[in-house]
Every structure is written in C-alpha cells, then in structure tokens.
Amino acid sequence: GVTTGSPISMLVRNKDQRSKDYEDMVTKYRPSHADATYDAKYGVRAVAGGGRSSARETIGRVAAGAIAKKLLSYYSGVEIIGFVQRVQDIEYEIEDHD
User: Fold this and answer.
1) Residues in contact with 48: Cβ distance below 8 Å, sequence separation at least 6, in sequence order
2) How far apart are CA 45 and CA 22, in angstroms?
C-alpha cells in the first residue's frame, strides 16, 4: 500500500477519574499495579492516581502496541502471544505438544 506519511493519532478521553477514589492508596498499594515496585525503586508514589505507573500514562504504548500487532500479523504473518505464567507460587504449566 501507499501512505501519505501522516502519523497515526489516537484520542482516549478520561472522563471518570476522581481523586477521592484513591484515598485508601495512601496506606495501601493497588493489587497487580506498579505502585509497590516503583516506590521501592525510586521512593516515589503518586497516590492520587497519576504518575509514571498510571494507566493514563501507559495507554499510548498499549494502543500503539495493538496497532503494531495487527500490522505485523497482516503484513508478515507474525503472531504475538503474551500471558502470565506465574504469580508468586501459582504457576501455569506449559504443555509441550512436540
């Protein structure tokens, strides 16, 4: 195909963010979130729901990855699969079908 070279753009509106929803985060870490590791590494927490580990900050990379995944599949037949194999002591055993 042919393109004009124009960039792909996306807009994700964040209409339901409410800082009061994060009041408990002053004393608790969010499950399955980067709060704990980011705090341990850098000593910084954004308890009001923003910051480096915020979904509002990562949405751009997730959306771009989804587009890249579709393009790789369409033009090159590449299939990308990702999953969590282990969480602490709970592990998914991968079956070898060869």
Assistant:
1) 19, 22, 25
2) 12
Write out pLDDT tens, residues 19-74. 777 777 778 887 767 778 888 888 887 776 666 667 777 888 889 999 999 999 99
Is the C-alpha dihedral spanning 62, 63, 64, 66 positive or negative? positive
Q: Collect contacts of 5-10 with beta carbons under 8 A, ≥24 apart.
A: 8/64, 8/67, 10/60, 10/63, 10/64
Task: Write out the H or E segment, with its range, that includes residue 19.
Answer: none
Tokens in use for 2?
């042919």
The CA R_g of the chain, rounded to the nearest whole Å, is: 19
- Tokens matching residue 17: 């963010």
> Each residue of 67-78: pLDDT tens digit?
999 999 999 999
Distance CA 10, CA 77 (A): 25
